[in-house]
Write a structure and sequence with these properties.
It holds the Pfam family Glycos_transf_1. The protein is α/β, with parallel strands linked by helices and about 220 residues long. Helix 2 links the parallel strand 1 and strand 2. Helices cover about 35% and strands about 15% of the residues.
Length: about 220
């Protein structure tokens, strides 16, 4: 990386936290440095239109109804730490969700234990035995893995889901997070500079720093 930087005339960064890190690593860089945030484009109309088709496809893949679920999307590799959310999800999903009383006095919702599913969507990076071991350990009937899907299908599944979970140890500027946010899908993201730069906790998403049930709730 240092060789690439020293041979360059200009560097483009996505966010201020990247600039800070860049200046720490290469304080004497003589070239031009610019921050140009990424942007995403989503077709929400198409995602809604094909939602039922893509939901049925997912149900065929996993072999069960998918009424309430969360997604973890992206190529599975160690930096994405897909195992980070598994235990707290299983613990939370094993508990009944208590009903909340609405203004009418009626219970707005009430779920028995095992009310949600967790779906990992993405291919597996080569030569990652830890990820292969993790996937082979998935024994819960409420946790699933499907290979990569096209962008249109992913966006429909994001809309159908109750939220996107990002467990990455580190992030640059996650396009998957940005696409989910553009679609109005709730984003639950692990605290790291990239996610914290993109998401304002309790405003544009939820940030958690611990794999404990309370933190993820």
């Amino acid at each position: 990386m240092t060789e690439s930087v020293t041979r360059s005339r200009a560097v483009v960064l996505f966010a201020p936290f990247m600039l800070k890190k860049f200046q720490e690593l290469w304080p004497s860089y003589p070239g031009l440095v610019e921050i140009i945030p990424q942007a995403v484009r989503v077709d929400e109309v198409s995602a809604h239109k094909n939602l039922s088709i893509h939901r049925r496809w997912l149900e065929e893949q996993v072999g069960c109804k998918m009424e309430r679920f969360f997604v973890i999307a992206g190529r599975l590799r160690p930096v994405k730490a897909p195992e980070f959310a598994l235990t707290p999800f299983l613990e939370w999903n094993g508990e009944p969700l208590m009903p909340s009383t609405g203004a009418s006095g009626d219970n707005d919702w009430s779920f028995r234990p095992h009310h949600h599913h967790l779906v990992y969507i993405g291919s597996v990076e080569e030569n990652t035995p830890s990820i292969q071991l993790f996937l082979s350990s998935l024994t819960s009937s409420h946790v699933h893995h499907v290979n990569s899907v096209d962008r249109e299908c992913l966006h429909s599944l994001m809309l159908a889901s109750d939220g996107l979970i990002n467990c990455s140890i580190s992030e640059g500027q996650s396009l998957t997070n940005m696409e989910a946010m553009m679609l109005g899908t709730a984003v639950l993201a692990r605290a790291n500079p990239g996610n914290c730069d993109l998401i304002q906790h309790n405003e544009t998403g939820l940030i958690f720093s611990s794999p404990q049930v309370e933190a993820l709730k």
